[in-house]
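User: Some background: our group keeps a shared notebook of sequences we're curious about, and every so often someone picks one and asks for a predicted structure to add to the entry. Today it's my turn. The entry only has the sequence so far, pasted here. Could you supply the structure so I can complete it?
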Amino acid sequence: MMELLKELQSLQGRSFLKEADFTPEQLEALIDFSIKLKKEKQEKGKVTPYLHDKDIVLLFQKTSTRTRLSFELGGDDLGANTAYIDPTSSQFGKKESVEDSARVFGELADGIEYRGFEQADMETMAKYSGVPVWNGLSNEWHPTQMIADFMTVKEEFGKLKGLTLTFVGDGRNNVANSLLVSGSMLGVNVHIVAPDELQPTAEIQKLANDYAAKSGAKPLVTSDIAAGVKGSNVLYTDVWVSMGETNWQERIDELLPYQINMDMVEKTGNQDGQLIFMHCLPAFHDGNTILGAEAVEKYTGLDKPEMEVTDEVFRSKYGRQFQEAGNRKHSIMAIMAATLGDLSLFK
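Assistant: Of course. Here's the predicted structure to add to the notebook entry:
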């Protein structure tokens, strides 16, 4: 426990903008702290109020379900006061610059969650606010998602190092970037299986390979589905069209062969207790959403309203996507408590 506390103390007062700003030990400490907070909540019905009397601004330029609820409800559980700002209810980004807004928020609050577009804006917010800023998602990175994801993996397998996590789909989105880099830091063999035109940039791959050389991880980026999924412990996917994009037909044409289905599950060779499926949600796995139902009518190539994953896999024994969603709250609580909280309460 003392080693965990020492790592958490090294995060005090810091922003959480991208994984590469931290050491592998610090990331693993956040994962372990997340598991600790979850157990505390389950056993006692409440958690230690590490954020007692703190004020937090929740700034959302993009819509959100899990991230918003996790910061808002998690902040409440930790004893904080939270104020939500949606994409249309403030002067931010219209009449007021990121720098000016950061200075204002820093005067009014003790911490800022920011879900936006450009990573550079995250850096500006942290530079001028003078308080911890937590990246709820940017175009380039999704660091809070990573703590929840690897928390879920560690809960399932009891370890991280040496496991193989395979992301299948749009390999140049923020989730794929974060999985590749974070996993390489933590000793997880992250495979990105995507068409050549949708693979991570050379810069992202180099960053992951540099970390892998130290951790012993074996990252792989490939368009070969059979080679990419073989030996996977985790099959992971995300929506094919990211926020702000509209090229549905193009993505369907490119990625339909990369749909996670039972044939792909069998290709892992790990069906018996050594394989789980994960998805950061929302997912297009059936026709019970407006967009999912419309997709079959509007776009060619889809026989069923299933895109990145089939309904069969989504509802199967392999699915951990809802556990993963619940872990967003515990992991975000850990991030806030470690960077802003009163760690003298740690036991």
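Suggested note for the entry: The longest strand covers residues 55-60. The longest helix spans residues 24-44.
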